[in-house]
Amino acid sequence: MLKKILLGVSLLLLVACGEGKTKSEVIKLQGSDTILNTSQAIAEEFMKENKEARIAVTGGGSGTGIAAKLNGTVHVAMASRSIKDKEVKKAKEVGIDLEEIVLGFDGITVIINHDNKITDLDKATLGKVFAGEVTNWNELGGEDAEIVVLSRDSSSGTHSYFKEEIVRNGKKESDKEYGPKTLYMPSNQAILQEVKSNKYAIGYIGMGYMEDSVNALSVNGIEPTFKNVADKNYPIAREVYWYVDGDRKGDEAKLVDFALSPKGQAIVKSEGFVPAR
Fold first, then answer.
1. In sequence order, which residues have a C-beta less than 8 Å from that of residue 75 and are 6 or more positions away?
2. What is the pLDDT of residues 30-53, one digit of tens each?
3. For residues 143 and 131, what is the distance between their CA atoms, to the nearest angstrom?
4. Sheet architecture: strand order including 54-60
5. What's the CA gap between 42 and 53, in Å, rounded?
6. Predicted TM-score (pTM) of this structure
7. pLDDT tens per residue across span 82-102
8. If 0-12 CB within 10 Å is exposed, 13-18 middle and 19+ buried, where does residue 71 land?
C-alpha cells in the first residue's frame, strides 16, 4: 500500500551503474498513473540485466505524458487511453515518428464501500450515475442517501476513456459531461482511499489497483476478473500503451523489447493487468 502511494507522487530515479563505469543517458518515462507501478517494475527488472542503464519513471496522467513526449522531454509516454488526433497531428508537425506499443489490457473496475450492498449495475445506469442524473442510492435499490461520485481528474487517460464509454455511452456525437457534484481525484489510490472510508461513494480504478478493502461492482452482470478482461467479455476494458519513437535506439529500444518479452509481459500480469502477448 505505502509503495503504491509513494509511487503515485514521486519521481523515481533508478540507477544501476556500477562504480567506475560511464553513466548512460537517463531514459525518461512519464504519464499514466494507472500503469505507473507496472512501468516502474519493468524498469527495475530491466536494469538488473542492463547494469549501466538509468531510468526515471514519473506519473502525472496520460495527457501530461503524451505532451511531454511531443515536447521532446521524455522518451516514453505512458498512457491509459489512445492518442488523440490532435496529438498525432502535433507529432507530425514537430517531426516525431511515434509508435504505439500496446503494453497490456486493463479492466476499469467500479468500486463501492464494503457496507454498500449493491453488486451490479448496467452500463447505462452507470452512465446516469456519473452524469449526475441518478443521485440517490435508493434509485438503485440501496439506502436513501446521496451518491458521492468520484472520478479521476482530466489529466487522466482513464477519465477520458470512462467519460466516452460510460458517461457518453460510446456515442461519439454526445457532449455529455460528468455530473456537477463529481469529485475529481488525482490518482487511483486517492479514489480507493475515499471509497474505503465513505459508505456512499462510488468511483473507478485500474484493475491493478483493486484491493479487498472495497467491493467491485459487476457491469452488465460480468465481474471485472482477469479472465473476463482477457476473454474481452468485461464491458469496460481497454488497452494501456507506451508511445515511443519509431526509430528508437540504445537503451530506449532495449527497454521496449524487454517490456514485450515473456519476462516483461509476466511483470504486466503480476501487476494485475492482462498481458498484450
1. 27, 28, 29, 69, 244, 245, 248, 252
2. 999 999 999 999 999 999 999 999
3. 20
4. 12-15, 54-60, 26-31, 76-79, 237-245, 98-107, 274-275
5. 13
6. 0.84
7. 999 999 999 999 999 999 999
8. exposed
